[in-house]
């Protein structure tokens, strides 16, 4: 038992400290899983499976992550581990959200939320509320997203969880940015950035920098936006966050496009597209195709632009994001 806990904790530390050593974490969790199975410890078997799911999710291997979380969920239910069940449900929600299956993600997060409330797990409750806010934000229900993030923020502050507080502040910044309240968004994202830097949360720092880049880009301060996105890109590459790397490249492409540097923009989008397709990040891929269409249109490459918009529309349709589908249709019609 002692060896199992030590190995498992090493893997958890490596995957949770934003050091980017996900493969090393996987090795530790695999060892912990083998020990758990050898000694017949079902609880630690489930935990090791869940940790492997989290590690593979961090690498952008979402389907593989789902497989591990499903195994962990089954064990948690078999042995009556309600906390483990809630954790597995929440992790499945995160994985499906990363695949752009937001309604399915919401279903999992709502189940996780109920369990957290039933067993008095305040940290788990806050995490579930934050995740629900993110899902509804992707679906364009920004006020609903803000309500969830405000609840999550209050819990994080009540129980002094700075990581959760930073995540909630960042999510509020994203939601207000989507509503066009950019100065308010900047204030939230600056607070999130300060917390991330204070506690050494590299992933949170990357997200906050990227969000600030989006905010300043929306205000027309494109060079300032590029500076933030370049900082976010470096962190994403340092910690092995492939999804974040793709998002930063995509945002850089949008900023370069706004400055009229269309070829440079396309190059950034092409790199982002390769990553999105590699990790099956459908939302990121759709967003990249749409931005690429904009830049190709500016270069008067109408046929290629239409193809890019059609690719984006097909992906948005699969995710049932009607407003984005309409944007693609209008872009295509304007070139036809």
Alpha-beta classification: mainly alpha
In CATH, the homologous superfamily of the domain at 1-80 goes by the name: Tetratricopeptide repeat domain
Radius of gyration: 20 Å
CATH class of the domain at 1-80: Mainly Alpha
What is the fold-level CATH name, i.e. the topology of the domain at 1-80?
Serine Threonine Protein Phosphatase 5, Tetratricopeptide repeat
Q: Quote the average pLDDT.
A: 92
Low-pLDDT sequence parts: 1-20
Which range does the strand content fall in? Answer: under 5%
The rough form would be described as globular
Count of β-strands: 0
Number of helices: 17
InterPro entries: GPSM (IPR052386), TPR-like_helical_dom_sf (IPR011990), TPR_rpt (IPR019734)
GO molecular function, one term: G-protein alpha-subunit binding
Subcellular location: Cytoplasm
TPR repeats: 46-79, 86-119, 126-159, 166-199, 206-239, 246-279, 286-319
SSE topology sketch:
Elements: H1 2-16, H2 22-39, H3 42-58, H4 62-79, H5 82-98, H6 102-119, H7 122-138, H8 142-158, H9 162-178, H10 182-199, H11 202-218, H12 222-239, H13 242-258, H14 262-279, H15 282-298, H16 302-318, H17 322-335
Subcellular location: Cytoplasm
InterPro entries: GPSM, TPR-like_helical_dom_sf, TPR_rpt
Keywords: Cytoplasm, Repeat, TPR repeat
